[in-house]
From TrEMBL:
One BP term from GO: glycolytic process
Catalytic activity: D-glyceraldehyde 3-phosphate = dihydroxyacetone phosphate
Organism: Candidatus Thermofonsia Clade 3 bacterium
Subcellular location: Cytoplasm
Subunit note: Homodimer.
InterPro entries for this protein: Aldolase_TIM (IPR013785), TIM_sf (IPR035990), Triosephosphate_isomerase (IPR000652)
CDD domains noted in UniProt: TIM
Protein name in the entry: Triosephosphate isomerase
Length: 254
């Protein structure tokens, strides 16, 4: 199954998300090879419940962009796993590049969030990736390995875990998409660490690529033998471009 979806970041009101998903459901049904895809959408928290309602029965999974590790408490501005579940989220994205760089999230903090999500039967999309200085030093493999080991510490089985590899230098406006050969090496390293952590079960954890994916380059990542799918940002913020990327990615599959 090819996993494909969009992080809407801080875009869309609840009504806009409802309209986005209603249109998306209609359009993706006509995409060739759609039966080979499993789609997901990660809206802003304020749109989570509306998104879950609009996606109901479509097979589109709804996720959240972040959460706190506590069930409740004096954590102004935070959202708990219980709240996400109540709003209909099926999984949570943790460790996105922007959370790490703009808000200082550490692997130790992410580990608390991962364990909390699993405790509440929320799937986890763990984002990992090296900054440009680490890449320049040739230390990306070691850096990402450490991210995985720290964030997943104490997790006995992978369960509903997927890993999204997004080099920090490839994310956001001005980001540069990574060379597919570079991504292939990164995927191989991620798989090695997952096997080290979870044994045979680590073979089955989906690994996705994210970072400046668009309709012109998506096929190169879809063809990678280790790839389980990809995530998009701005290239998926309207239905036309979402469908264009999805169509081209699926067309590249054997």
């Amino acid at each position: 199954m090819f996993l494909f979806g969009v992080n809407l970041k801080m875009h869309q009101t609840p009504q806009q998300t409802r309209e986005f998903l209603q249109m998306l459901r209609e359009r993706v049904a006509r995409v060739p090879k759609i039966e080979r895809a499993r789609l997901w959408v990660i809206p802003p928290f304020t749109s989570t419940a509306v998104a879950a309602e609009a996606a109901h029965g479509s097979g589109i999974r709804i996720g959240a962009q972040n959460m706190h590790w506590a069930d409740e408490g004096a954590f102004t501005g935070e959202i708990s796993p219980l709240m996400l579940k109540a709003c209909g989220a099926e999984f949570v994205m943790l460790g996105h590049a922007e959370r790490r760089t703009l808000f200082g999230e550490t692997d130790a903090v992410l580990n608390q969030k991962v364990l909390a999500a699993v405790r509440h039967n929320l799937g986890v999309m763990l984002c990992v990736g090296e900054p440009v200085a680490v890449k320049a030093a040739g230390a990306g493999t070691e850096y990402v390995s450490q991210q995985l080991k720290l964030a997943l510490c104490g997790l006995a089985t992978p369960g509903d875990l997927q890993v999204l590899y997004e080099p920090l230098w490839s994310v956001g406006e001005g980001g540069v998409a990574a060379d597919p050969d570079y991504v292939s090496v990164a995927f191989g390293n991620i798989r090695r660490v997952l096997r080290e952590l979870f044994g045979a079960a680590g073979e089955h954890v989906p690994i996705l690529y994210g970072g400046s994916v668009d309709a012109t380059n998506c096929a190169r990542y879809a063809r990678l033998p280790q790839s389980s799918g990809m995530g998009v940002g701005r290239a998926g913020w309207n239905v036309d471009s979402f469908v264009a990327v999805l169509t081209n990615a699926l067309a590249a599959l054997d």
